[in-house]
Design brief:
Blueprint: E1 4-11, H1 18-38, E2 44-51, E3 55-62, H2 76-87, E4 91-96, E5 102-109
Parallel strand pairs: 1-2
Antiparallel strand pairs: 2-3, 3-5, 4-5
Helix pairs in contact: 1-2
Length: about 120
């Protein structure tokens, strides 16, 4: 069975630059795909997008098993995701959570423009 995906949008998300809106969408899409593909026994994937006056934060957390055999910590997908965030002046982190699961977080400036 595939994990349930829950999406929460909060804060100020209007008037994002097109590049930032697109990057948030693509990063969320890639994170969900990775969770469905690699998170063993995951039952849910929580996606949260929160905006404030300066930045937009994307957090994707799953509750799957974090066995090292199932996930490559620096797979090509994660490298591409980090590059996408960095090009817009943002940050990107991915790794195991304190309990079972995996967490991806990207923080992008609202006005991020490709460098």
């Amino acid at each position: 069975a595939r994990p349930c995906v829950e999406v929460t949008l909060a804060g100020e998300l209007d008037d994002l630059s097109p590049a930032v809106g697109s990057a948030i969408y693509r990063l969320a899409q890639e994170s969900i795909t990775n969770a469905r593909r690699h998170a063993r026994h995951a039952t849910r994937v929580a996606v949260a997008v929160t905006g404030d006056t300066d930045q937009v934060r994307l957090t994707v957390v799953d509750d799957g098993s974090t066995s090292t055999t199932g996930r490559a910590p620096a797979g090509y997908g994660l490298v591409g995701m980090r590059e996408r965030a960095t090009l817009l002046g943002g940050t990107f982190h991915a790794g195991p959570t304190a309990g079972p699961g995996w967490r991806v977080e990207a923080i992008l400036p609202r006005t991020g423009t490709p460098r």
